[in-house]
Design a protein that fits this description.
- The protein has about 160 residues and is an alpha+beta fold.
- Helix content is about 50%, strand content about 25%.
- The chain contains seven helices and three strands; from the N terminus they run αβαααααββα.
- A three-stranded antiparallel beta sheet has the order 1-2-3, sandwiched between helices.
- The longest helix is centred in the last third of the chain and has 35 residues, at about 125-160.
- It is elongated.
Length: about 160
């Protein structure tokens, strides 16, 4: 199973887990871990989004109240969310090269010093890896589209 997960992570366009938080363990800690504290410092809307919760004011107020009391992990436990939170990083991809007639890039540069940071929640490590791979693919395609758009703009300027 772990080799399978390794292969899935390897296919995630160099995205990786920076911090992994096991919520069931976080609830048992006397003090919040540094990684969980970083999660609670996100915007309330981002926390709700990561957890798959709605964007209503009552939800935001609940999250903010629990963070203020340093009890967000307990709230997650009450909602049966005892899985994993992960802080993930996706290095910047640039300098895309294409083979003639092929839409998807054949090569590109990866800049490990410049990363997009995002958080994901899942009930299992397997699901966490799947979500990492999905988000990495979305970010990769976003970078490809941005690169194509910039190249089109550059070509238009050169023609003037």
């Amino acid at each position: 199973m772990n080799k399978y997960l390794y292969k899935k992570i390897e296919q995630a366009h160099s995205a990786y887990f920076e911090n992994l938080i096991f919520i069931a363990n976080e609830v048992c800690r006397e003090n919040q871990s540094e990684a969980f504290e970083e999660f609670t410092e996100l915007e309330t809307a981002e926390i709700a989004k990561v957890l798959g919760w709605n964007s209503e004011k009552t939800t935001y107020d609940l999250i903010e109240g629990e963070i203020k009391d340093e009890a967000l992990a307990g709230l997650l436990l009450r909602y049966d969310m005892t899985g994993f939170l992960a802080e993930c990083r996706m290095p910047e991809c640039a300098d895309f090269k294409y083979n003639k007639g092929i839409e998807r890039p054949s090569s590109w540069s990866v800049h490990h010093g410049i990363c997009r940071v995002f958080w994901i929640y899942a009930e299992s490590i397997g699901e966490l890896v799947e979500k990492l791979e999905e988000k990495a693919e979305d970010l990769f395609l976003e970078a490809v589209l941005k690169s194509k758009s910039e190249k089109q703009e550059q070509n238009a300027k050169e023609k003037k």
